[in-house]
Amino acid sequence: MTAIVQEVYGGPEVLHFAQVPRPALRPQDLLVRVRAIAVNPVDTKVRAGGPANTPVPDAPKILGWDGAGIVAAVGPEVDRFQVGDEVYFAGDITRAGCYAEYVAVDERIVGHKPQTLSFEAAAAMPLTSLTAWEGIIETLGVDEGGRDAGRSILIVGGGGGVGSIAIQIAKRVCRLHVVATASRPESQAQCRKMGADQVIDHSQRLRPQLQELGYTGVDYIFSTAPLGNFPQLVEVLNPLGKICLILGGPEAKALDVSGLVPIRGSVAWELMFTRPRLNVEPEKQGAILNRVAELLDDQTLESTLSAVLSWRDIQEAHRMLETGHTIGKIALRVDG
Ligand SMILES: NC(=O)c1ccc[n+]([C@@H]2O[C@H](COP(=O)([O-])OP(=O)(O)OC[C@H]3O[C@@H](n4cnc5c(N)ncnc54)[C@H](OP(=O)(O)O)[C@@H]3O)[C@@H](O)[C@H]2O)c1
Question: Where are its TM segments located (predicted)?
């Protein structure tokens, strides 16, 4: 089959087309004919994850975990899907990705594709939706049914891939009052389009901006930003409030949580690959993707797709993502 692979670490130029064998199936795997993929920062981080031009250990490596396509074959223990089903998925970072004509993916972490969306609009959704859903509903414990309606949440980095769907889930599913952050007019407009009630600028101090809007603090914080701004998050958290972070890195070692003690605040992480990687109830991800598909089909949620390219433009897609300022999601057609 045709796939986009890398043999060495480096910039977008290390990505190239090659012929590789179709993946072998495990008992609970689907073989999916991939119709569209989406790019995520994890793709660029793995691509550049070692000294430039040194070999990647599992070459030829296939990146890319967000995909949508059609089930072409099933493993002997598959019981949720059939050949011909349209599916979408965010995959498992420990396995080969979906920059390829075919990918093998465990059926438990796959959802039925939203029927009303194109393959490109569907491929834009899984990884970020799982991150936002697990972060807001599981990690922060916000009620999906609206029991927490009217409580406040600050979503940091609201214009990006994760932020765009996080705003929608917080506002349109959980009915929270949403303040999002964005630093540019285009990303601020994206936050409002996704449903944010108010927008402030993460390149400026957060507390005075929230005070100006009349807040003494917020009940929840969902941050897609690097951890450098953590002291600012603690500063704007209400007593008994909760913070969900989705990034780690070296700053995590020195995170000063002392400001959370007197306010009984909490901080916890969301990492969407934890369930498949450590085999922790992976079927919950299939269930979340099916729920998100229903919400997309009944138009409670909308796809965050902002640009469609051909997979021939994969290097350009990586360059766009590496600006750190894309809006919504970039998807690529697996064509030609
Ligand atoms: N833990 C997980 O499971 C998980 C899952 C998905 C993503 N992630 C990570 O989360 C981060 C965001 O992912 P994404 O897919 O949303 O990326 P993205 O689409 O590339 O995010 C772009 C957005 O980030 C905003 N941004 C840039 N610098 C910022 C800063 N210092 N503070 C706040 N916002 C900033 C930009 O807003 P402006 O243009 O307005 O500045 C832009 O709208 C990435 O590092 C990614 O690797 C983690």
Answer: none
Q: Are residues 134 and 235 in the same domain?
A: yes
Structure tokens at 301: 């949620």
Cα of 162 to ligand 1 centre, how many Å?
A: 7
Q: What is the pLDDT of residues 188-246, one digit of tens each?
A: 999 999 999 999 999 999 999 999 999 999 999 999 999 999 999 999 999 999 999 99
Is-contact 223 244, C-beta < 8 A? yes
Structure confidence by residue, pLDDT tens digits, 125-161: 999 999 999 999 999 999 999 999 999 999 999 999 9
The per-residue pLDDT for 185 is 98
Q: Which residues of the chain have pLDDT under 70?
A: none
pTM, two decimals, is 0.98
Cα–Cα distance between 177 and 152 in angstroms, integer?
5
The total number of structural domains in the chain stands at: 2
CATH number at residue 213: 3.40.50.720
Q: Whose CA is nearest to atom 28 of ligand 1?
A: 324
Among the three residues 248, 269, 290, which one is the final residue of a domain in this structure? 269
Q: Which among 224, 280, 318 is the best mutation to test ligand 1's pocket, defined by most ligand atoms within 8 Å of the CB?
A: 224
Q: Are 108 and 174 in a shared domain?
A: no
Q: Check: CB of residue 267 under 8 Å from CB of residue 248.
A: no
Q: Counting atoms of ligand 1 from 1, which one is nearest the CA of 272? A: 3
For the CA of 321, the nearest atom of ligand 1: 20
> What is the predicted pLDDT for the residue at 195?
98
Domain interval for residue 47: 2-125+278-333
Reported residue count of the chain is 336
Residue 255 and residue 93: Cα distance in Å, rounded? Answer: 26
Q: Do 120 and 138 fall within a single domain?
A: no
Q: Are residues 144 and 259 in the same domain?
A: yes
**C-alpha pair distances (Å), 78 with each of 26, 82, 105, 289:** 10, 8, 11, 18
Confidence at residue 323, expressed as pLDDT on a 0 to 100 scale: 97
Question: Is 336 strand, coil or helix?
Answer: coil
What pLDDT is recorded for position 249? Answer: 87
